Hints:
alpha+beta
Amino acid sequence: MKIKAVIWQEDGVWCGSVPALPGCHTWGESYEQLLEMLKDAVQGWLEVASQEQELEPEKQLIDLFV
């Protein structure tokens, strides 16, 4: 999966946000740590979103790998 993230440095730490996933933000003490934290944040966001979604009876949730 490929997803865009916005990254920047602020007060000596690396910060990151994923615009496509509301509320998906994280930070790391180094660029490399930020990348790992972003991967974890995206995976966690997607897991929670897929578990919390209440569907109407005529709809179904599927796993889609891209």
